[in-house]
Write a structure and sequence with these properties.
Two copies of one chain form a homodimer. Chain A is of the alpha+beta class. The first copy, chain A, has a single domain, classed as Thiol Ester Dehydrase, Chain A, CATH 3.10.129. Chain A is built from one helix and six strands; from the N terminus they run E-E-H-E-E-E-E. In chain A, strands 1-2-4-5-6-3 form a six-stranded antiparallel sheet, covered by helices on one side. The radius of gyration of chain A is 15 Å and the shape is globular. Strand 3 of chain A pairs antiparallel with strand 3 of chain B, so a sheet runs across the interface.
Chain lengths: ~160, ~160
């Protein structure tokens, strides 16, 4: 069984450009536990530049956002003593996103996002996320995620 | 002369995926004054879905981000009593981005971003931005933009 939580999103909620496994054009963010941190790794395509040599902020915000919702799901499953893929599905969406750009993020290297859930409730998870380019934290983020409304599963 | 500030960005800083006129793959956000508001209009491509029928948050964050830096430049030129395109160029980058998702944003309609600069200093501009889908504000953002370091122009 995959340890990436996005691989367990119900089909009807697996189309997100940032993290949906069914979106052929998308970024395919995948979030998995590494002990108490939720980690995602991503090497941006060359087109996502801010200025030549550096990643544009919108992509970095997107990675933070989708890794935040993935981390929320991971944390909620863990808090419930369940594995992703068990029923009912736990799918979170973003209510609020904060991104601080600390330094330019170089293009051409794998970026590593490390998230810590700092508040875990049944319907709300807050995560703090650091984005690393090599050893350097270039972006810091905070995602408030809320459990997706049932209407999302009824389309 | 174009009234979109991004059309006046120096070539070496006009490659941003979000707003660079030279990025063939990009979103081409364009920001222009409509009296005291800076406005950008964008109809997302169908691939940028969250779930079917709705725009994914990362794209919305990208639009807020790039319209925030564009608005910062517009505000800085206006504060200096100068037109975009006059020398020296004023090019801002994002220090901090806050995005609140108030309601799902429907796909398939033109989105209108309306920004108000709420703090305008020589090297720092803060803007508050609302994103409209029709009459509804679906996303609210706040961008702290800072004047780009000279190093950006020396590559």
């Amino acid at each position: 069984m995959s340890d990436a939580v996005q691989d367990h999103y119900p089909d009807e909620t697996a189309w997100c450009y940032g993290c949906g496994r069914l979106n052929a054009d998308g970024l395919h963010v995948q979030s998995r536990w590494e002990s108490d941190e939720s980690v995602a790794r991503h090497t941006p395509d060359d087109k996502y530049i801010a200025i030549p040599g550096f990643v544009y902020g919108g992509l970095l915000a997107s990675l933070i956002d989708c890794h935040g919702t993935g981390t929320a799901a991971l944390a909620a499953y863990r808090a419930a003593g369940r594995e992703p893929g068990t029923q009912p599905p736990l799918r979170f969406v973003t209510a609020s996103l904060q991104v601080d750009f600390l330094a330019p993020t170089p293009l051409g290297v794998e970026l590593v996002l490390r998230a810590r859930p700092v508040e875990v409730k049944e319907r709300k998870v807050v995560s703090e996320i650091e984005l690393f380019a090599g050893d350097q934290v270039t972006v810091r983020g905070r995602v408030v995620a809320v459990l997706a409304p049932d209407a999302m599963f009824e389309r």
